[in-house]
């Protein structure tokens, strides 16, 4: 199977998203200040969306592998780890210094989207929009 490692990463990200969401809804609900609960939920939401986006890129890659797709996947994976991970840690620990990591993760997520645009632009014209 091509890209087995990436498929495993997406599966783990999906599982972690569900676990984090459940943890937030059941274990943290009522124990965190509303502001910190919102921070935690933001981490879950961004992780969920980027996990789904990675799944889409992997499906595209299965049909038409392009070198840039791996950059997209790597940027999003690192971005989720830093962005969502720092928000989870900030919400649970309350240590405000962890918030300094969050923008780095956000920047990596943005770079992933820009890399996706470049990848799409560099794809052979006949492949883009092919049905």
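Q: What amino acid sequence fits the structure above?
A:
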């Amino acid at each position: 199977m091509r890209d087995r490692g990436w498929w495993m990463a997406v599966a783990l990200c999906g599982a972690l998203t569900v676990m984090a969401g459940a943890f937030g809804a059941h274990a943290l609900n009522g124990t965190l200040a509303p502001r910190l609960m919102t921070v935690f939920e933001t981490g879950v939401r961004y992780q969920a969306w980027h996990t789904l986006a990675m799944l889409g890129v992997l499906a595209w890659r299965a049909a038409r592998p392009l070198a840039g797709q791996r950059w997209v996947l790597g940027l999003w994976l690192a971005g989720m780890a830093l962005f969502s991970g720092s928000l989870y840690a900030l919400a649970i620990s309350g240590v405000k210094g962890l918030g300094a990591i969050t923008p780095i993760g956000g920047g990596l997520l943005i770079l992933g989207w820009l890399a996706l645009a470049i990848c799409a632009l560099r794809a052979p014209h006949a492949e883009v929009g092919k049905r």
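Q: And what stands out in the fold?
A: Residues 4-122 form one domain.
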